[in-house]
Amino acid sequence: MYFLSWVKEPATPVLSRRGGWRIRGDAWLAGAWERRLVSSLVRKYFHVNPGFEDDPMVFHRVPSWSSEVDYAFEFHAHALRLGVAYYSLREGWVLSPTGALASLLESQGAQACEIGFAKHLKGKQVELPEECGGSSSMVLVRMGDYVGVGRRVGEGGRRFKIKDLAPRGFRKLARGGAEDVVKFNEQVLHESVREAVGFIKKAYRSIQGSGRVAVSFSGGADSTATLSLVAQALGPGRVVAVYSDTGLEFPESLSYAERVASRLGVELVVLEPTVKAVDLVGEKGLMSVEDRWCTRILKLEPLRRFYSSSGLKLYFDGARDYESFNRARTPRLGYNPLIPGVKRALPIKHWPRLLVQAYLYSVKIPLNPLYDQGFTRIGCVACPAMHLYELHLSFSKHRGVHEELVKAAGLGMEEYLRMRWSTR
To answer: Which sequence spans correspond to the domains of the chain?
Structure first.
C-alpha cells in the first residue's frame, strides 16, 4: 500500500508507505492532454484560465459510482486535492471541484460572490443575486475567510447549493520537474528497485537457470519499466523483448518499442498473427470485455507458438495490482493458463504507476508519446480495455481502422461510438 504527499518547494508528489492520501486506485503524473483537459473544464465552469497545462498534477483513479459514469479520477496539484473529473455517457466531461480549487482560483483573480458569514453552510442552499454566476452551472462563493463552490439548483434559477469550502489564500507553488520527482522519491525508488531486481534474479535462478529469458513488451510504461529492470538485473544479453503485434497496434508503439530495445541493448522480437482482425470481426463480432477473442487469437496464439519453439521457461510481465481487480488477484510468480509451459513473473506487481514513471525518469527512458495524447493504456487502436473517451480519441487519430471494423461488424458509426466495450 502506498500513500501520496507533496514537497511544496518545488511542488513535487512523493510516495511513501505511510502518511498522506492513501492510494486506493492507480495514481500517476498527468500527461499533457490530461492537464489540458482539467484546464479546459475549469475554464468551462468558471471562465478563468487556471494555467494547469505545465503544472505537475497527479491523477488518482476512483471507482465509478453510476452506470452513467465511464471513468473518473481525482486530480491533485500544488499540494492540494482540487476535485474530481469524470466522463459521463450523457454529458461528456464533468468537473466536481473542491473548495481548495475555489481558493486557488480566487488567488489567481477569479471573482467570488460574497454571501456573508454563516456557520455550517456546506450542503445548504443559498440564493445569489442576479449578477452572480451568469448562466454557469457553478460559481465561486465567499464567506468571510472561506471560499467555495456553489452548484446551481434547477435550470436558470438563482439558488445554489454550497458543495465545498476551504480557507482563502491557497496559491500556486513553484513547479517541480522530472528531476525533482526522482530526487524526492529517491528512498522509495531505491527500496522498490532493489526488491524488484532481487525478485528477478531469484526467479531466473530457480526457473531458467541459464540462457535467455523473455519480457512481454507492449511499449507501455509498465512493460518498459519491467524490461529495463530485467536488463539491469540479468544483463541485456540475456533478455529478449517480445512484442506481439496484433495488427491493430498504434503505429507509435512499435517505433517506441524499437527505440527502447535499442537503447537498452536487448533483442526485440516482433510476433504477428496469422489472421487479420477485420476478418475475425466479420466472423465473431466486435471484441468486448466479456469476450476478448482479440487477445486470445491475435496476441496469445503467436506467443504460444514462440514459447513452444524457443525453449524458454520464464517470461517477465509488467502487470500491476493497481490496474484492475483481476490483476490484483494474479500471483506474482505462476502460470498464465493461456500460455502453458512457461512461468510468468511480475516484478512491479505492487507498484502504482507514479512509481513506474519515477523509475523511468531515473533511468532516463522517455514515456511512450501516446500518454501525452490522452491514452491511459497502450494497447490496440480499438481495445476492449479502452474507456469511451479513449475510443473517441483513437477514432479521431485512426479513423480508417475503425471504419473497417465497423463495416465488418455491420454497425453504424454513430452506434459504434456510443457503445461501451463492456456492453458489446
So the answer is: 3-167, 185-423
So what's the pLDDT on residue 57? Answer: 97
Residue pair 332/196 in contact (Cβ under 8 Å)? The answer is: no
Q: According to CATH, what is the number of the domain 185-423?
A: 3.40.50.620
Comparing CA positions, the residue from 229, 239, 311 lying closest to residue 268 is: 239
Task: Check pLDDT > 60 for residue 423.
Answer: no
For residue range 14-65, list pLDDT tens digits in order: 999 888 888 888 999 999 999 999 999 999 999 899 999 999 999 999 998 8
Sign of the Cα torsion 187, 193, 198, 203 reads: positive
Bridge-based pairing of strands 314-316 and 213-216 is parallel
Is the model's pTM score more than 0.90? yes
Same fold, 3-167 and 185-423: no
Which tens digits make up the pLDDT trace of 274-323?
A: 999 899 988 888 888 888 888 899 998 999 899 888 889 999 999 999 88
Other beta carbons within 10 angstroms of residue 265's beta carbon come to 11
CATH class of 3-167: alpha beta
Q: Is 421 a residue whose pLDDT tops 70? A: no
